Amino acid sequence: MSLELRINDDIKAAMLGKEKERLNALRAIKSALLLLKTEKGAGEITEDLELKTLQRLAKQRKESAELYKAQNRDDLYQEEICQLGFINQYLPKQMTEEEITATLKQLIADNNISGIKEMGKLMGLATKAFAGKADNKAVSEIVKNLLS
User: Fold this and answer.
1) In the chain, pLDDT over 70 holds for what percent of residues?
2) Among residues 26, 24, 21, 25, which one has the least CA distance to residue 8?
């Protein structure tokens, strides 16, 4: 079942269950997918584009939540965190720091990467390896630690 159909079914369920917060998050996802669909033409959108869209929405919610927390706006912070939780349900399971480190060590060994000067090369490989499964910011920090 495509993401769009899953979202539509979940919107119906949220409406019937009167789940306001969940409904808001699902409508935001549906809106982003519709914008993507019209932006790329009338064709179907790929799973990769759907995944990138969900990651972008999750990142936006996370950044907004941090901003609201810094401004002591707990009501808005809670709303963003709640929506982030619903968006994360549609994203693949995120890798732990240990899993990321193990995979990066394997990439370093397989590609004979020796120093910090080759960080760009390793990040390129890591981005492909962790697509949708890990936050690039976290991966970057671990890469820096491993190469220094």
Assistant:
1) 97
2) 26
The span from the CA of 51 to the CA of 3, in Å, is 9
38 burial via Cβ count (<10 Å: 0-12, 13-18, 19+) = exposed
Global model pTM greater than 0.85: no
Listed in sequence order, the residues at least 6 apart from 113 whose beta carbon sits closer than 8 Å to its beta carbon are: 107, 121, 122, 147
| CA–CA gap between residue 113 and residue 122 (Å, rounded) | 7
> Do 81 and 101 fall within a single domain?
no
What domain range includes position 127? Answer: 97-147
Structure tokens at 128: 């492909």
Q: Give the number of domains in the chain.
A: 2
Say yes or no: 20 and 79 in one domain: yes
